[in-house]
Amino acid sequence: MATIHRAQIRPTKIELLAGWLPDQPWYAAETDTELRAVGAYRFDDPAGEVGIESHLVRAGDGPVLHVPLTYRGAPLPGADAHLIDTMEHSVLGRRWVYDACGDPVYVTALAETILGRRTQAVEYLEVEGQGEPREPTAVVAGTGGDGDAPSDLSADALTATTAETVTVCRTPTVELRVQRVIDPAATPDGARLTGTWAGQSDPALLATARFS
């Protein structure tokens, strides 16, 4: 379950992404191109410590970009290379925002969702201390695995490298390929995460997994 607080956030998520995306090798738009949100989905952190939210955004008339983020209440040791920025949240205080591909909590959540061991988080909007269900703006699902995946998918010894439009996250038990630029026509085989959102009624590829 993901609780969404009514809060002021500075910078906003779109402002944060607008400052970070132009430096990424898979971003092809001009720096001053307007960035707009297309959809988003969340995963749960069983420990309740890390916010996990993946954004689908578009720069101008360009393709949909897939940007998973994690939000933490303190810096993640050894992950400076994946730190995007900090933001001030009027309810939760300062949050350290990471490119989630370098965060082991996200990598484990993604792998387990692809396998069908988890689903995307159910979202609740906090209103006067009560949680009201909120429809997600993107719906994702895993295809399941082939039975050979290990039971423990903790993302120890995580490395994340980007080539062209894919970020590869590797651990001793799984290799995840996170699509940064969405190709609606992509139809790979194997275990994968797909999603739909407004304007994308057919499931689009978001990530694939290969297990050791």
Automatic annotation (TrEMBL):
Transferase as UniProt keyword: yes
Pfam assignment, any one: Mak_N_cap
Residue ranges annotated for the Maltokinase N-terminal cap domain, each copy included: 20-103
Gene Ontology terms, MF aspect: ATP binding; kinase activity
Coiled coil regions, renumbered to chain: none
Alphabetically ordered keywords of this record: ATP-binding, Kinase, Nucleotide-binding, Transferase
Taxonomic superkingdom: Bacteria
InterPro entries found in the cross-reference section: Mak_N_cap (IPR040999)
Protein name as catalogued: Maltokinase N-terminal cap domain-containing protein
Organism: Solicola gregarius
